[in-house]
Amino acid sequence: MNRHHATGIVTAFAWMVLGFLALPAFAVVPISFTDTRYLSMPDEHFSLQHWRAFLSSSEWHNSIWQSLWIATVSTLAAVVAGTLCAIGCWRVSSRWSERVRTAMILPMAVPTIVYALGIYRLYVDLDLVGSAIGIVFAHTVTGLPYVVLTVSASLANIDPRLEQAARGLGASVGQTLRWVIVPNVVPGILSGAIFAFIHSWDELIVVIFIGGRAFFTLPRRMWDGINDNLDPVIAVVATGMILFTLLVLSAELALRARRPKS
Amino acid sequence: MPSQNDARAGWRPRHGTYWLIILPALAMLVFLYLVPLADVLVTSITDPKPGLDNYLLLFTSTSVQKTLLTTLRIAALTTFIALLLGYVVAYAMRAANSSQQRLMLFCVLLPFWISVLVRSFAWIALLSSRGPVNAGLMAWGLIDEPLPLVRNETGVLIGMVHVMLPYAVLTLYANMRGIDVRLVAAARSLGASRFQAFRMVFLPLTRPGLIGAGTLVFILSLGFYVTPALLGGGKVLMIAEYVAVQINDTLRWGLGTMLATTLMLSVLFALWALSRIIDVKRLFGA
Amino acid sequence: MSDVRDRQNDIERFVHNTEGRIYSRRVFFGMCAALGIAPAVARLTPAMADQKELVLVNWGGDAVRGMKASFVDPYLKKFPDRKVAIDGTGPSTSRIRLMVQSGKVTWDVMDRNLHTALEIGPEGMLEKIDYSIVDRSKVRPEHAVEWGIGNYIYAMVLTYNTKKWGSEVPASWKDVWDFKKFPGKRAFRREPDAVLEAALMADGVPFDKIYPIDMKRALDMHKKMKEHAIYYTVIADGQNAFRNGEVHLGQLLNTRAWPLKQDTKGLYDWTWNEGVSWGACWMVPKGAQGGKAIWDFIAMTQDPQAQAELLKSNGYGPVNPEAFKFLDADWNKVNPGAPENYSKMLQGGIEWYAKNATAARQQLIDALSS
Predict the structure, then answer these.
(1) CA proximity to B238, closest of B156, B165, B120, B164
(2) Are C62 and A228 in contact (CB under 8 A)?
(3) In CA terms, which of B73, C73, C188, C315 is 20 to 30 Å from C294?
(4) DSSP at C128
(5) Residue B7 sits in which domain range?
(6) Superfamily for the C54-152+279-335 domain
(7) The total number of structural domains that make up chain B
(8) In Å, what is the CA distance from B166 to each residue of A85, A191, A195, A219?
(9) Do C366 and B229 touch (CB under 8 A)?
(10) Which residues does C contribute to its contact with A (CB < 8 Å)?
């Protein structure tokens, strides 16, 4: 088998898998233009009615705004704490640090509903039910495992002697982190950040329990729309998000193209 | 030249700083997760009456056993398929040029923005007996009757693999990017075939990525709830939904929390066992 | 002094705008301190004590809009100085239990059903209905119990495709279990109430012999049904399965069958025959803070005209039989509480479910899971 042949097959197969990943998006985009009052392909013609409903609805805007900042703040917190924790465990590398790292995975392994009961009880005592800080805390701690796992996987490729060398040359722990370790685990940090963000962005159960009436995040609003008649606005929101990612990625690509290659 | 042990001993005092940076995450975990969780899990031995009766159900209740087995089977299948497909995509991404890479990354990130709820309904629309997928297959003459692709275990698997695949791809890709390509080139120059170079050099180097992605996907798969409920036609019951039914709709919190405790302990045990089989440090890296 | 009063107003407005909940108590106290007021002044003003709003909890979406128009607005017209907030986040059993156990009860009136009231009332989770203010005689006797009072009627009805089998349409559960005469996919809810009853009716059990339910007999019928049916967990999903042609006959809520008929321009229809009717009801969590306002509100919702309005906005059947006088014949066609429809249906056995719902649900799920 020659080189091109083998790579070609792998690439073709990869594109098929990517097509599978994109498939529901191909359903969601036309659904957002449906002329019916429920989630379905357009019946007779394309209609902008649900886009209009979405754009003029302060409820949806509020929900998006709430979800956006809750997800952003809790992702930042989870990324900072999670990355430091993963690096610390990697560097200490003792039996106890291994235990800590394993414990960090727990929030992924326990059904959310059970945690929701517990955090509700705690927040009633602390008077944090229906508070922003309460939701951010809950989403941060449940987002941590994603960051710890992905950063740890990235750290696996780094030679520990790199750290040793840096310290040997007189770098402080802070400098070593900043200049030696973190730059080497950026892909892990980024995927951990995406996972933690999506975790918060999509999280419904905990918010139902501790959100009170003040917090109606996007998943909660969607669930409200689904329960009645599968409100097509949820397809509009999804399409909007797809457009937004497309925009960000192509803007970045355009910027790269303009920058001269070094 | 100091021995490895001496070097390690020399590092010890500095570990204090590293424990310090572990602390914020650990404190959050303990106070915002473990403490409130323990408060609830305790009901598994106190509700409806004190004792281990709820745990006996693990051995006596066929419905609990059946649900656990279904969950394990589906989670394992999902993990296997997601790793296989994810590996190919991550591998192709690594080899692709920069603009192709962007497009691939876009496709991987795309599903994230469609909430799991909406995706389930999209799959129902696409895969149902009158949906476009079956219509297309019939138009090409590949099948005569619509395939039952949804409202059964097949539908659950399709939906779950779709949710999990981006996690697998991104974790594997993050790992593969860190691999020094010169190692593969070196193997080739020493006379290894492409496949040999892949199997002997590249594959072992991606093992931490595979283990990391596998752990992530498997644990997440155990907790699926919405997707099986909608795509399984009410006939595929996984543990998270079972727990939610016990807690939300009935007063049997003891049973629900017992299952949650069991799930948690099994995951911890599995991680421990994994760390025995493979090198402890390899589990998460290090 | 006026300065302090201004600040106090600011705080009250802030508390009101944020519903008093966005920021934690500590942040609130911090703010008070920053503004130069002792927290006690801000918290304990009589104006705030009077402003305790009634919190009505239901299942969201259209129910929020419908109950606001037909119940809350008339109530506020009658008591202009009171306040009502609708919380559409769903009073699930788990959340009621948690709230009552925590001792900090913020809900006042909840929209659930009579068999749940009978199930969790004896567990100490509910206040008893104050029948000195709420009028028991305004509803049918079966719709008033110790811990709950009916607020509307809903029914699980046989819903079917009108064109699929030529001129034939299924008219009874026997027809639904007849896979030869009426081929096609079926749909049931994955909950025991009404689903078990349908199976027994199909097996020839008359209305008066349905309860106590013979579980084995009902589940055997569903084991036969299983491969021909989907069992939906989300009601909107069941409705959708009909609408997109996945399913041709089965059981659906009357409040969903009606819009289904409209959306499909009559392709789907339903029959009240052998439907199962249930009473939705108001329940009040143990330790609710609303006081007399709770019972005033509930009494108000019994008004036949308000009940008729709710049918028009949401399709919820009036629980007050007098309401049908305020409705013309067309509206009564979709009204499960209209005497001619109500009499065709089986009355859901709330006492049986109060005792057996948990076990029945578990056995049904076990029988269905592969």
Answers:
(1) B156
(2) yes
(3) C315
(4) P
(5) 1-39
(6) Periplasmic binding protein-like II (3.40.190.10)
(7) 2
(8) 24, 10, 9, 20
(9) no
(10) 18-19, 21-27, 55, 59-62, 85, 87-90, 94-95, 98, 101-104, 234-237, 239-240, 243-244, 259, 263
- Tell me, yes or no, if A41 comes closer than 8 A to chain B by beta carbon: yes
The residues facing C155 across adjacent strands are: C277
CATH class of C154-278+347-368: alpha beta
Asked if B60 is an interface residue toward chain C (Cβ–Cβ < 8 A), one would say no
Name all domains of chain A by residue range, CATH numbers in brackets. 30-238 (1.10.3720.10)
B121 near C CB under 8 A = yes
Give the Cα separation of A195 and A215 in Å (integer): 22
* Distance from C-alpha of A143 to C-alpha of A104, rounded to nearest angstrom: 10
Mark whether B104 and B171 lie in a shared domain: yes
- Encoded amino acid at A7, one letter: T
Chain B residue nearest residue A202, CA to CA:
B115
The confidence score (pLDDT) of residue B278 equals 63
Q: Which of C22, C65, C104, C235 to mutate to test the interface with A (most CBs of A within 10 A)?
A: C22
Q: Using CA of residue A58, residue A60, residue A66, residue A71, what is the dihedral sign?
A: negative
- Helix residue spans in C44-172 (DSSP H): 46-50, 62-67, 73-78, 93-102, 114-120
**Tokens standing for residue A49:** 């009615």
- Tokens found for residue B95: 């080899």
Q: What is the dihedral of CA C175, C179, C185, C187, to 10 degrees?
A: 40
CB atoms within 10 A of CB B229: 24
Report the distance separating Cα B159 and Cα C313, nearest Å.
36
Structure tokens given for B280: 């402890």
Q: Point out the least confidently predicted range of B212-226, C124-138, C145-159.
A: B212-226
Within 10 A of A253 (CB to CB), how many other CB atoms are there?
Answer: 16
Chain B residues in contact with C365 by the CB 8 A cut-off are: 63, 237, 245
B162 and B76 in one domain? yes
Can you tell me the mean pLDDT for C61-85?
93
By the 10 Å C-beta count (0-12 exposed, 13-18 middle, 19+ buried), B269 is classed as exposed
Give the predicted TM-score (pTM) of the model: 0.88
Q: By the 8 A CB rule, do A95 and A130 touch?
A: no
How confident is the model at residue A187, as a pLDDT? 85
Cα angle vertex A204, ends A202, A209, to 5°? 150
Task: Give the burial class of C44: count Cβ atoms within 10 A of its Cβ; 0-12 exposed, 13-18 middle, 19 or more buried.
Answer: exposed
In this predicted model, what pLDDT tens digit does every residue of C38-63 receive, in sequence order? 444 433 333 344 457 999 999 988 89
